[in-house]
Design brief:
Order of helices and strands: HHHH
Mean pLDDT: 77
Oligomer: single chain
Number of helices: 4
Radius of gyration: 26 Å
Structural class: mainly alpha
Distance between the termini: 80 Å
Low-confidence stretches: 26-32, 44-48
Number of strands: 0
Length: about 130
């Protein structure tokens, strides 16, 4: 009887001590503060700058368009170069301003990015296969 009481007490005490530790790890993951990178490349950051991620996604879309024959490799390389240039200019302006862009600069860069996306869409639309009516 004493052995079972001792084991039960030990199990209850270990659960009581382990619960805050386990709860603390869960809060860390819920806050998006994971230190280990996930399989899809996301490092657990909520918010912040994700320019590299957007650039990689657009490059992937351009590569698929080249593979499917909707864009030439030269067009895709030109668009990638323009995207990198815009990203580098934004980064240089942000670094020069001490890490913060003014609202006017932010709006200007957003407009330039939107114009570039529209340019890519227009190029893809020109070579899009015509929809067949059924």
């Amino acid at each position: 009887m004493r052995l079972t009481t001792l084991l039960t007490s030990f199990a209850a005490a270990s659960l009581l001590l382990a619960t805050p530790v386990l709860a603390g790890d869960g809060d860390k993951a819920a806050d998006g503060q994971c230190s280990q990178p996930h399989a899809h490349g996301h490092r657990g950051m909520k918010g912040g700058r994700h320019g590299g991620m957007h650039l990689a996604r657009m490059e992937h879309r351009l590569d698929r368009a080249v593979e499917s024959g909707r864009l030439s490799q030269a067009q895709a390389d030109q668009f990638k170069g323009e995207m990198r240039q815009l990203r580098d200019e934004t980064k240089a302006q942000r670094d020069a301003a001490g890490g913060q862009l003014t609202e006017e600069q932010r709006t200007q860069f957003k407009e330039r990015a939107r114009a570039l996306r529209e340019k890519v869409k227009a190029a893809l639309k020109e070579t899009a296969p015509a929809k067949q009516e059924t």
